Amino acid sequence: MTRSGTRDFHGSFYEYFRNNTLDANSWTRNRAGQPRAASKFNQFGYNINGPIYIPGKWNTDRNKLFLGIPGF
């Protein structure tokens, strides 16, 4: 039997960030004397993992059913 979860809840929140102020200018745009191309990219997300249980009724030791929710 393999177990893919833990008895505790875990979660995280993240952001993938890209902006033209962090990028280098391309060789062709640099040679032509043009500024960097505008680009903005922000992607947020989250992840929640933990056991599913009903206190006092079902899965009270939190080792039977696990849930993982990736967000965005």
Instruction: Report the mean per-residue pLDDT as an integer.
Output: 84
Share of β-strand residues? 35-45%
Low-confidence stretches: none
Strands, count: 3
Strand order of the largest sheet: 1-2-3
Number of helices: 1
Number of domains: 1
Helix vs. strand class: mainly beta
Q: Percentage of helical residues?
A: under 10%
Radius of gyration: 23 Å
N- to C-terminal separation? 31 Å
Oligomer: single chain
**SSE run:** EHEE
3D architecture notes:
There is one protein chain. With 72 residues, the chain is mainly beta. The chain has one domain (10-70). Helix content is 7%, strand content 38%. It has one helix and three strands, in the order E-H-E-E. The chain has a three-stranded antiparallel sheet with strand order 1-2-3, with no helix packed on it. It is rod-shaped, with a radius of gyration of 23 Å. The two termini are 31 Å apart.
List the helices and strands and how they pair.
Elements: E1 10-19, H1 27-31, E2 40-51, E3 66-70
Name a few traits of the molecule.
mainly beta; 1 helix; 3 strands
Task: Summarize the entry for a quick read.
The chain is mostly beta strands and 72 residues long. The chain has one helix spanning 27-31; strands at 10-19, 40-51, 66-70. It is rod-shaped, with a radius of gyration of 23 Å.
